[in-house]
Amino acid sequence: MNRGDRPSPSPARPYAFPEAERARLSNGLTVHVVPLRRLPVVTTLLMSDAGAECDSVATAGVASLSVDAQTEGTTERDGTALANAFEQLGGSLDTAATWAYSELSTTVAASRFEGALSLLAEATRVPSFPESDVLRLREERMAELLQQRTEPRGLADDMFASACFAAVSRYASPEGGAEQTVAAISRDDVVRHHANFVLPARSTLIVVGDVEIEHVLRHAESVLGSWSGQGDSSPDVAVAPTHAGRVVHLVTKVDSPQSELRVGHTAVGRRHPDFHAISVMNAILGGLFNSRINLNLRETHAYTYGAFSHFDWRRHGSAFETSTAVRSDVTGAAVREIFAEIDRMRNEAVSPAELSLAIDYLTGVFPIRFETTAAIADAIAMRESYGLPADYFDRYREQVAAVSADDILRVAQKHLTPDRTQVVAVGDPAIVRGELEALNVGPVYLYDATGRRTA
Amino acid sequence: MQLPIETFTLPNGLRVTVSEDHTAPIVAVNLWYHVGSANEPLDRTGFAHLFEHMLFQGSEHVAANEHFELIQRAGGTLNGSTWLERTNYYETVPSNQLALALWLEADRMARLVPAMTQEKLDTQRDVVKNERRWSVDNQPYGSWWEKLPALCFPPTHPFHHSLMGSMEHLSDATLEDVAAFFHTYYTPDNAVLSIVGDVTIDEAHRLVEEHFGSIPRGNGRPPLADMSVPSTFGEWRREVVFDDVMVPRLFLAMRAPVLGSADYYPVSVAGAVLGMGRGCRLHRELVREQQLASSVVAFTFDLAKGSDLLILDVTARPGVTGDQLEHAVGSILDSMHRDGVSDDEVERAIAVITTELTTSLQSAQSRADKLSQFATYFDDPTLVNRQVAAFERVSTADVTRVARRLFGADNRASLLYEPRGEDAHAAEGAFQEGDA
Hints:
The complex is a heterodimer of chains A (455) and B (436).
Chain A: E1 21-24, E2 30-35, E3 41-48, H1 62-69, H2 79-88, E4 94-97, E5 102-109, H3 113-125, H4 131-147, H5 152-164, H6 179-183, H7 187-197, E6 203-209, H8 213-224, E7 247-252, E8 258-267, H9 275-287, H10 292-300, E9 304-312, E10 318-327, H11 331-347, H12 352-364, H13 373-385, H14 392-401, H15 405-415, E11 422-427, H16 429-439, E12 444-447
Parallel strand pairs in A: 2-6, 7-11, 7-12
Antiparallel strand pairs in A: 1-2, 3-5, 3-6, 4-5, 8-10, 8-11, 9-10
Helix pairs in contact in A: 1-4, 1-7, 3-8, 9-12, 9-15, 10-11, 11-15, 11-16, 12-14
Chain B: E1 6-9, E2 15-20, E3 26-33, H1 47-54, H2 66-73, E4 77-82, E5 87-94, H3 98-110, H4 118-137, H5 144-152, H6 167-172, H7 175-185, E6 191-197, H8 201-212, E7 235-243, E8 249-256, H9 264-275, H10 281-289, E9 293-300, E10 308-316, H11 322-339, H12 343-360, H13 364-378, H14 387-392, H15 396-406, E11 411-419, H16 421-435
Parallel strand pairs in B: 2-6, 7-11
Antiparallel strand pairs in B: 1-2, 3-5, 3-6, 4-5, 8-10, 8-11, 9-10
């Protein structure tokens, strides 16, 4: 073959998302087991509908603190002993609170699965929430928030959340809460959150790896079958934009050599029927390396190391967000280019080459997304948390492949809304304020590093 | 658990490792060039990394950024990275697209220079400068990446200077530098190729021959400067940096045996006893009991020549001074140096390390990267199958022995970040607010 000829692919081998066996324990807890004979490892994940959306606005951060505090001891052993017990098995008890759910998870050698599930069940059923440890975790979160005052990416993310979502919305502050709300959290809040939301009826156990279904169900019944409890219904999550029109929010970071930028607005929730079309549209706009925004800002203008857009999906209302960090003296120019790319997406159809690149990427990369037991468990948790259909992953590629250029134009016009886009810049006002004002995007509000408006 | 491993070498010196795994229709391609920032001339710091960017700017039959486009269109993922001793390039693709990934890697190994232009170099130089601002200059504590190696290695040592390089040296880089670096280091006999996943050894052999077989061997690489350094610092050296940060953070480095040496394993276990997982000493004592720190971690650079570094990274709680933090970390090292470690601690550390090793091999690309690492540094990719056993053989006595040798006050380099004056005031105020 000629050196310049690109090799063509051989026939593709089929791939299917690994099949799960679903079952229910005697107490109503749903269990998904995915037997996978690759490496002798197992991921165990217990998710509960107890994510940050369950927080009240005034005590934002409880869900996150509560799931972290589950590792700080049980009625059977203290926090150090619990950590040691997990780590003697080679695992660690990982915790997280996303918007939609909280989770405990661990990955261990298959031979140690039983021990790991027993410990995970113990931390779920009978956590003791020692007062001193809950307060210590709260102070660690306060320390993290304090450190963020000089960290441009975190500052930009937090300002973007409050610039998009009105203060009545839980989405206006980060999953882990803000300084004022975290400071107000007590041990009682943590205990109440756990009792109200981490319950068998709101939870799903997901086990992926080198296991036998019967064995998993038998052991799960023995360590989780007697878990019980009645709780609350989830609070309503208000979703309202902060500003009716465009506003530029400039957060002061003196002497900053770069401006950290966020450009975007509120968007529809994850279960919206346009999801697949929006995904393909965003891949072309700013999702891929060869997307319009990255090629423009990085490869054409060399303003940045990278520029990307994404939809930060949530159940009740998402955020569309473009993120980049650009040299300070091109801050205004970079914002102008981002707006121009959003406008172009809304004004003209994408080319066949762009469309096929995005679809071929999203459908082709599908099996690569699920190489590890943890990735498969996370995918199932995502699907369950949004209440997506059981065949969601089986149909994903055909739904993406069906997206047309017309669909993309339609969803761009509907779901990208430049007239209410918020611009956040974390940078040096002495250099960038004039540039941002000259853009005439909207009024320029000035803030200090704690998010207080100063002008 | 043992990975199947087959190796062959082309007449031009390219060493190839193949590990079959047909559980999913994907395949990982991973190419290591045995060149990193250690090989840069001292007036071209940052060049190895800038050069990595240039490798995505096309080659004779590939346009700028087309490498990205072709792989993503094929449904694959890709990237490259630069380290002190090596540079790697990698793709994971659906297995029916293996030929494309190999063709792309071969085209730039064989025929990069015709595609290089001044404009592309100027653009990537600016992109890299933005990367430096993003990761170093505009990040709290971001300069540790260059300050810690500078503190730990003497000025003429190849590991002394920053991988990201200086803005001035990046500005000085020319197209001639690109061509010279390419001809010296980007040759098949200075590279290792690993292919992992849904491919047979015969098919891999055929495709590698077809795409890489005709690339000529290089003329040999210039020797590195002397890498050897004493096995300990012989002192406790300190540097304090006043920076735009809210709380102190300490990077404490110890010289450590290089990757692959006999004592690498007990030292790694000692590092895990100190700073891996929540049952480790630093977490138990500094985070949980004394509440002086909010996060702790220990890690090594995994350097294969000269000396490795075992680094403790400890962030203070608000209100704790840098002196308090450094003193507390020093005391923990002192007691381990004096009294050694317990059986329970060693058992926990080995369990955590070996589980992580096995778990990390789940992805075809990380398996391929490990194979390339062992093939590049030790000419033996099968070492990947002996790592778990090497860690399991480590005894409590081994760990106590290396702690006595390396954890004393004569083998420490502290890089301590402290808030600048006005920031320290803000931190104090906020701490009180938080408590109230």
